[in-house]
Amino acid sequence: MLDLLEKHQGEAKIIAGGQSLLPIMKMRLASPRYLVDLRNVVGLSYISEDESGVRIGAMITHHVIASSPVITGNCQVLSEAAGMIGDPLIRNRGTIGGSLCHADPSADYPAIILALDGKLVVMGKDGQRTEEAGQFFQDTFVTSVKPNEVLREVWVPKIAADSAAVYERLSRGPGGFVLVGVVAFLRMKGQRCEAVRVALSGVAPTPVRSKAAEETLEGKTLSDPLIQSASRRAVEGLNPSPVVHASTEYQLAMVEVIMKRAFERCRHKIESRR
Fold first, then answer.
1. Is the pLDDT of residue 174 over 80?
2. What is the pTM of this model?
3. Radius of gyration (Cα) for the chain, nearest Å?
């Protein structure tokens, strides 16, 4: 596989489930001379766990992620998101690696990996490297993976009992493209927000963290007014490009609404375990 990518560098495209690449080829937006199929490549389809997190091979499908007891038990937000993607055909064919490498700003996984401080393992002929999500996603449909490399693995941390992560999305119907997505991660110590991370999708060329919202909540006692204040601040610095089904003003308004909903769910999840 890596030999083929090296030999045909610039002329070859990797195909995993084909749910992103094939539509692009049908629209004549890409015309690779060679396709390198990963379906039979050994070592890309696995799910394993250790004390700190879960490792997911790049060829694992959305359906498997949605139904895996290992992922559901340790990182439920990822399983929930996988179950929202497309329709049964897409979920049974599409892969987590293909989705992440496609780097659609409206995709479900990237913001989750960013909010969880996940890591991505990229493999090439010279070895492999591990990258933070903030380094991996570089622009719309652009990642740090080079033409002669392949994404091998995704690592996500386990969500502890004192923590919760929630993904909320706005789309035109189930499985539709995301107009606004919010991932909220919250770790509590008593009633105090010990750690907070917020990532947004659909409102920038790449998934982005909302530092203003995080700073509003971190170290504070969680309350409804505080969640409301953080949700208002979440749009600071955002200037999303209008899309067919949503104006910039509508997207920004929905960020506030959806983030409030996400943090209320986080709080409920943590409190229900006490």
1. no
2. 0.94
3. 19
The angle, 0 to 180 degrees and rounded to 10, between the axes of the packed helices 248-273 and 224-233 is 150
d(Cα 214, Cα 195) in Å, to the nearest integer? 8
What value does the mean pLDDT of the chain take?
A: 93
Please, what's the b/e burial string for 185-197 (b: 16 or more CB within 10 A of its CB; e: otherwise)?
bbbbeeeebebbb
- Residues listed for the chain: 274
CA proximity to 75, closest of 58, 91, 54: 54
The answer to whether the CB of 166 falls within 8 A of the CB of 184 is yes
More confident residue, 3 or 257: 257
> In the chain, how many H helices and how many E strands?
12, 13
Domains annotated for the chain, with CATH where assigned, are: 44-157 (3.30.465.10), 163-273 (3.30.390.50)
Backbone dihedral angles phi then psi of residue 146, each to the nearest 5 degrees: -80, 165
Please give the pLDDT value at position 234.
94
CB hemisphere CA count around 274 (13 angstroms): 12
